[in-house]
């Protein structure tokens, strides 16, 4: 049975990915702050743990769940948006939260991939199209710097001697159609937002090798008039 580790398995996108892979009879291991009732195995980590402790805890439980085998895919879809410039009262807090939600989760996922992923497997990290396209993100500095670090991580991990032998790619969503985004932007054009199921379907296609992907490449999900394409 093929296996996938979904880091952020309780989020909107993570939950969609868990359900998608389960529907295809994959063994699904979720890593998040609380347990997923849809996954076969849930690894819960605590924000009070250090990054090293989170990594060690996740690796120990994932290795136990895999029972001597290796995962076919590791998907890091954890995250969250933080706004604010350097003059914002919450600026330093937004930087700290973005580092925790985006950089640290990607780093733990990379560690998991280095130790638990098949050589012909797939590691996916989640970047952001808005950050990739811009030379700066003055209205969301913490978020921008964290996503830029994730983009650099994808580039580094896809190279020789990175410690990850599998294929590594990044996804660059524009706006994902989630309940949180709808609540925050109720007057937006939802037909241009990418449904979580569309991304989950594509992640499955890449992981199952039914659709090709190129090592080190970033893929953007573009949704227009309710239809999604991958560029």
| Mean of pLDDT | 96
The number of helices is 7
Q: Give the C-alpha Rg.
A: 17 Å
Number of strands: 10
Number of domains: 1
| Helicity range | 40-55%
Task: Look up the CATH topology.
Answer: Rossmann fold
List low-pLDDT spans: none
Strand content: 15-25%
- Sequence of secondary-structure elements: EHEEHEHEHHEEHEHEE
Characteristic terms for this protein:
231 residues; alpha/beta; Rossmann fold; eight-stranded mixed β-sheet; two-stranded parallel ribbon; globular; oxidoreductase; tetrahydrobiopterin biosynthesis; Dihydropteridine reductase
Structure description:
GO terms for molecular function: 6,7-dihydropteridine reductase activity; NADH binding; NADPH binding. Keywords: NADP, Oxidoreductase, Tetrahydrobiopterin biosynthesis. Homodimer. The chain is of the alpha/beta class and 231 residues long. The chain has a single domain (3-230), classed as NAD(P)-binding Rossmann-like Domain (Rossmann fold, 3-Layer(aba) Sandwich). It has seven helices and ten strands. It has helices at residues 12-23, 51-66, 91-116, 129-133, 141-157, 179-184, 196-207; strands spanning 3-7, 27-32, 41-44, 71-76, 117-126, 167-173, 176-177, 194-195, 218-224, 227-230. The strands form two sheets. An eight-stranded mixed sheet has the order 3-2-1-4-5-6-9-10, with helices on both faces. A two-stranded parallel sheet has the order 7-8. Strand 1, helix 1 and strand 2 form a beta-alpha-beta unit. Helix 1 (12-23) crosses helix 7 (196-207). The radius of gyration is 17 Å and the shape is globular. The mean pLDDT is 96.
